[in-house]
Design brief:
β4 and β5 (68-73) form a beta hairpin. The chain has a single domain (4-84), classed as RRM (RNA recognition motif) domain (Alpha-Beta Plaits). It is elongated. The strands form 2 sheets. Strands 1-2-6-3 form a 4-stranded antiparallel β-sheet. Strands 4-5 form a two-stranded antiparallel ribbon. The two termini are 25 Å apart. The chain has helices at residues 11-20, 33-44, and strands at 4-8, 22-27, 48-56, 60-65, 68-73, 77-84. With 96 residues, it is α+β, with helices and mostly antiparallel strands.
Length: 96
């Protein structure tokens, strides 16, 4: 199983990337900071200086349909916010 699931490309994370050189990734729930650091440094050829991880809890969802309403929830996931060395950048749009 891969440690890095996908990058988080939102308006908020893009602003952090431009201002503070920080990037967000959705990672495997059982991954620790050391494994995340190695995976990002190998995949993107950058130097990681700091990592913050958090488990994002599920959100409850309700949808009203013709047959009533259905309840559910999104899945919980682990998020890692990575700070890179000054001068290093990650371009998520390079292979589009």
């Amino acid at each position: 199983m891969s440690i890095i699931v996908k990058p988080i490309v939102t308006e908020k994370m893009t602003q952090l990337g431009e201002k503070l050189n920080r990037y967000g990734f959705k990672v495997a729930k059982n991954a620790n900071k050391i494994e995340i650091r190695k995976a990002i440094e190998e995949m993107y050829s950058v130097t990681v200086t700091d990592i913050n991880t958090m488990v994002v809890p599920p959100k409850k969802k309700v949808r009203y349909t013709k047959g009533g309403y259905t309840k559910g929830a999104t899945n919980a996931y682990k998020k890692a916010v990575v700070t890179l060395k000054e001068g290093d950048t990650i371009d998520f749009y390079s292979n589009i």
